[in-house]
Amino acid sequence: LSSIVELNVGGEMYTTMLSTLKKHPGSKLAEMFTGQPKLRTDSEGRFFIDRPGTYFKYILEYLRSNQVPTQCVQDVYKEALFYDIEPLIKQLEDSPQIFGELVARKQFLAHVPNYSENIELMIRIARAEAVASRQSSVIVCVVRTEEDAARCQDALNSLDMDKKSVVKFGPWKAVPSISDLLDCIQMDIEAKGYKISCQPHTAEKGFRFKSHDFFYRFLFTWW
């Protein structure tokens, strides 16, 4: 291999030193250029990597100068994981963006039973009710404690609706509040490309409990 390497990363062109790419010998990126190159070339003879080229410049900048990126941190982190550049991964995990996501938010959500499955269930219900409609809604029951779960079940039995369409979250043993969980639900559904809003769900008169203590309506807007 020449000491100067030309790359085509997802359509973005880069020129760098071979030593730069091999700076961290244990990384996947270094292995791509160790011994016989393990990459295909494009029509111009440049080594082709089928990854987002936009963020590769931040990877190169780190390899060249040890500068940890402060822009597009989430996306650069994904690329650092792909290229298996361990020092960059660790430094990015100390950044506020990644630390907050991995250590704070995801650790909290790990304490909420069936969180990911319930997110997918909400989306399926909303899509099923979206036929010939601009909006569809999903009722969510959120309980933080076992005591609230029992009270919620009594309240659920009083609801005048198909109970199978109510998605239940909780209880959980962690500091974050119900409003924190509602924010997480909205954040993760919006991350999938959906436009949603959330508001307390008010039941009919004569309801045994304050319905807004447990029930919330997530409104999906389709157009």
Automatic annotation (TrEMBL):
It comes from Acanthisitta chloris (rifleman). InterPro entries: BTB/POZ_dom, KCTD7/14_C, SKP1/BTB/POZ_sf, T1-type_BTB. This is BTB/POZ domain-containing protein KCTD14. CDD domains: BTB_POZ_KCTD14 (cd18371). It comes from the Eukaryota. Coiled coil: none annotated. GO terms for biological process: protein homooligomerization. Residues 3-100 form the BTB domain.
